[in-house]
Automatic annotation (TrEMBL):
Catalyzes the insertion of molybdate into adenylated molybdopterin with the concomitant release of AMP. InterPro entries: MoaB/Mog-like_dom_sf (IPR036425), MoaB/Mog_dom (IPR001453), MoeA-like (IPR038987), MoeA_C_domain_IV (IPR005111), MoeA_C_domain_IV_sf (IPR036688), MoeA_linker/N (IPR005110), MoeA_linker/N_sf (IPR036135). Pathway: Cofactor biosynthesis; molybdopterin biosynthesis. GO terms for cellular component: cytosol. This is Molybdopterin molybdenumtransferase. It catalyses: adenylyl-molybdopterin + molybdate = Mo-molybdopterin + AMP + H(+). PANTHER family: GEPHYRIN (PTHR10192:SF5), MOLYBDOPTERIN BIOSYNTHESIS PROTEIN (PTHR10192). Belongs to the MoeA family. GO terms for biological process: Mo-molybdopterin cofactor biosynthetic process. It comes from Saltatorellus ferox. Pfam families: MoCF_biosynth, MoeA_C, MoeA_N. It is an enzyme of class 2 (transferase).
């Protein structure tokens, strides 16, 4: 059985051929959630001119003098034509270009009435106050959003500031999800509701993929039909369930029939041990996720999303380091990826009832990585992956539980 690190290396080595480079150009307004296929550089200095940051007077200092002769008004969007001599000032509004050699005094620090020819300031200001200088935020040519970034509202805003009106993005990968199992969506005492389908719909939509979804019962013909339909059009076929040791675990035996070769089956991780990855000569991938809902959540983040990244310019989920809220040791035998929440004081691993415990997982913010034998003291950093599409702190409710 592969270690987690070996599985990660095998995923990184996958080659999806020409599918990796499909790009389209779309308006910024429609680009949220898409992955950028080019660097966006700013086409001018930012700010583009020395910009007043307060409403008041731009004064040209003259020794200790506190009275200035008013030469005019400059509002945002206009420019003061001409130069100020020492002892002169212009009325200026926030966002307007400050004339050369001036310092801006806020209106509250002046004595002034409309129609007056001079303005008095209540102190002798330092040179160059309350001005955002041309180029102090960025210089023309600086890259502000890099290729491979999933575009969020802040990126779109800075891209617009950089002068972009559209962006080259990777085309949406097509992902076919086939949930499996007679019990799923059925009726009767042993039936269960489909939680994996909605989970993958949401995760993949947040990642900018086109999702098609089907369900197949544990019947060879039905599963083969669903998978063949999926294989015809998808970049990645994802199944949930049916990859372990049960008599109805039919997924592995289907690969040959679809023209896929196994890259790996089973990884030394919890949850998600029976995960299966396969590849086809035309660049399509097959990922069999174990059926337990938390296994789906974990293996989607650990294996499916890095695989999807091959179609998205190498995009990958970003792990961060977060201090543990209290001492913690992992004495299990598998590399554990445990739901955990970010709280005041640090990262708190969930107390869960195993990989079927979706409720505990939804009441968390992401996954903490706990290698075999790992021991943490409170404050030690741990690797943490926020759930895709989730806002930290907006957790589902964990009901009271009896121990
Ligand atoms: N003898 C062994 N048994 C099991 C092993 C093993 O190594 N030896 N591995 C266990 C591990 S670990 C996992 S994980 C599970 C995964 O098994 P499968 O991928 O074959 O999944 P299923 O058996 O089909 O389902 C597991 C569980 O999840 C429920 N499920 C399935 N689909 C959905 C859905 N769409 N929504 C909600 N819940 C779903 C299903 O009813 C089962 O309860 O195998 C262990 N067994
Ligand atoms: O590896 Mo399985 O997902 O623990 O139950």
């Amino acid at each position: 059985m592969l270690t987690f690190e070996e599985a990660v290396r095998a995923l990184a080595a996958l080659d999806v051929g020409a599918r990796a480079t499909r790009v389209e150009r779309i308006p910024l307004a429609r680009a949220r959630g898409r992955v950028l296929a080019e660097d966006i550089a700013i086409d001018q200095d930012q700010p583009g001119f020395d910009r007043a940051t307060m409403d008041g007077f731009a004064v040209c200092l003259d020794g200790q003098q506190r009275s200035f002769r008013i030469r005019g008004v400059v509002t945002a969007g206009t420019t003061f034509e001409g130069t100020l001599a020492p002892g002169e000032a212009v009325r200026i509004m926030t966002g307007a270009p400050a004339p050369a050699e001036t310092t801006v005094v806020p209106i509250e620090r002046t004595t002034f009435e409309e129609g007056q020819a001079t303005v008095e300031v209540d102190h002798v200001p330092d040179a160059g106050r309350n001005v955002a200088w041309r180029g102090e935020d960025a210089h023309a040519g600086d890259v502000l959003v890099a290729r491979g970034t999933r575009l969020a509202p802040a990126h779109l805003s800075v891209a617009a500031m950089a002068g972009a009106v559209d962006a080259a993005v990777f085309q949406r990968p097509v992902v076919s999800v086939v949930t499996t199992g007679d019990e799923v969506g059925g009726t009767g005492a042993a039936a269960i509701r489909d939680s994996n389908g909605p989970l993958l719909d949401g995760l993949l939509d947040a990642l900018g993929a086109d999702v098609q979804r089907r369900h197949a019962r544990d019947d060879e013909g039905e599963l083969a039909g669903a998978l063949e339909d999926a294989a015809a059009s998808a970049d990645i076929i994802v199944t949930t369930g049916g990859v372990s040791m049960g008599t109805h675990d039919l997924v592995p035996s289907m690969l040959d029939r679809l023209g896929f070769e196994t890259v790996f089956h089973k990884v030394q991780v919890q949850p998600g041990k029976p995960v299966l990855v396969a590849a086809r000569g035309d660049g399509a991938l097959f990922i069999g996720l174990p059926g337990n809902p938390v296994s789906v959540l974990a293996t989607a983040h650990l294996f499916l999303f890095p695989a999807l990244g091959h179609f998205l310019g190498g995009w990958a989920p970003r792990w961060i380091e977060v201090p543990m809220a209290s001492d913690y040791s992992h004495d299990g035998r598998r590399h554990l990826f445990l739901p955990a929440s970010i709280e005041t004081g640090g990262l708190r691993p969930a107390s869960w009832n195993g990989s079927g415990d979706l409720i505990a997982a939804a009441a968390a913010d992401g996954l903490v990585e706990l290698p075999v034998g790992a021991t943490f003291r409170a404050g030690d950093p741990a690797r943490f992956l926020p759930y895709i599409g989730h806002s930290i702190g907006e957790r589902a409710v964990l009901p009271p539980r009896q121990r």
